[in-house]
Design goal:
Bound molecules: pyridoxal-5'-phosphate
Structural class: alpha/beta
Strand order of the largest sheet: 1-2-10-7-8-9
Mean pLDDT: 96
Helix content: 40-55%
């Protein structure tokens, strides 16, 4: 039994952002988790390596995921399923107000269409879990075997993918004979990315502090989720390991709601594009970058400190929100 399927071809690169660092002060690196893998890549692939292996070990052939028309998680899952010769079903409902007339056809929706994704649309009031279970029953009745992907891929198996990422970062800094970063910055949605990173640096007894900028929850919920999942990872990887996990979760940069761009997020998108030729998306990475810029302005992060910003992907969203950059 394999506990991981291979969805990533190599370590993602760690790049120094010369122009952004010169502009803002601190030394800023970017971890390019946007760059690798099928189906358009992004942070979900690290999570799916163990989740899909679990599905295969359980003899499942049909992966079912909840999402919306612009879901990176759904798009990446469909891509991984194509690559591995598995079936997939996306249970879709509108979760983001339509940003323009082609919002539900462009970006991730377009890529899913090209991959011939099996999309089942449910009503906005319908409960994802109940609908997914119904669909799974039908799949099983037909002689196939369904497997439900956890929300955002953020269960223990998924989050372990970001423990891998923390180890990769440590490895990359060590190989370059550089001192470890003071901060790792990530957007936080369902929490698995952040929990994996927090656990990874804690287990390595590394003083790097992970700061997550929420893009979904506006309250304590997300901190509780990350806390619980981090402890679960540590318990699983290093039982009885006694450590304090020191992370920070900021919920002030969500803006109006999940999927609704913010003014300083849009500014951050333009800044990164102009200075570095890098693209952030309006839903995730731009809100985290807006948070980082604010922290530097407020001197919460100092000019002589070193930062790694996790580029979690989401390039298709740049297109889906084409009319939001004025
Ligand atoms: C899903 C996603 C996130 C959030 O990751 P979580 O593990 O759910 O917190 C961040 N950025 C992008 C581009 C994503 O697709």
């Amino acid at each position: 039994m394999n506990n991981k399927v291979k969805l990533l071809n190599r370590q993602s690169s760690l790049e120094f952002l010369t122009n952004l660092s010169n502009k803002l002060g601190p030394k800023i690196y970017i971890k390019r988790d946007d760059e690798s893998g099928r189906g358009g890549g992004g942070n979900k692939l690290r999570k799916y390596e163990r989740i899909i292996a679990d599905a295969i070990n359980k003899k499942a052939d049909t992966l079912i995921i909840a999402g919306h028309f612009q879901s990176n998680a759904a798009r990446a899952l469909v891509g991984a399923a194509c690559q591995l010769g598995l079936k997939s079903i996306v249970v879709c409902k509108a979760m983001i107000p339509e940003q323009n007339p082609t919002f539900n056809q462009n970006g991730n929706a377009l890529l899913m269409k090209l991959m011939n994704a099996n999309i089942i649309t449910i009503d906005a009031e319908d409960d994802f879990q109940i609908e997914m279970e119904k669909i799974a029953d039908n799949v099983n009745k037909k002689g196939n075997k369904a497997y439900l992907i956890p929300f955002g891929g953020s269960n223990l198996l998924g989050a372990l993918g970001y423990l891998d990422c923390a180890n990769e970062i440590i490895d990359q800094f060590q190989n370059a004979e550089k001192t470890m970063p003071d901060y790792v910055i990530t957007p936080t949605g369902s929490g698995g990315t952040m929990a994996g990173l927090v656990a990874g640096f804690a287990i390595a007894k590394n003083s790097t502090k992970v700061i997550g900028f929420s893009v979904l929850h506006k309250d304590q919920t997300i901190e509780n989720i990350v806390n619980k999942l981090t402890n679960e990872i540590i318990e699983n990887v290093k039982p009885k390991f006694d450590t304090i996990t020191d992370f920070e979760l900021n919920t002030k940069f969500v803006g109006e709601a999940y999927g609704v761009p913010t003014e300083n997020g849009i500014k951050a998108i333009k800044m990164l594009a102009e200075l570095e030729g890098l693209f952030l998306c309006p839903v995730y990475t731009s809100k985290a970058m807006a948070g980082l810029i604010e922290y530097i302005k407020e001197n919460k992060i100092k000019k002589d400190e070193t930062i790694v910003f996790i580029h979690t992907g989401g390039m298709p969203l740049v297109h889906a929100y084409y009319n939001q950059y004025e």
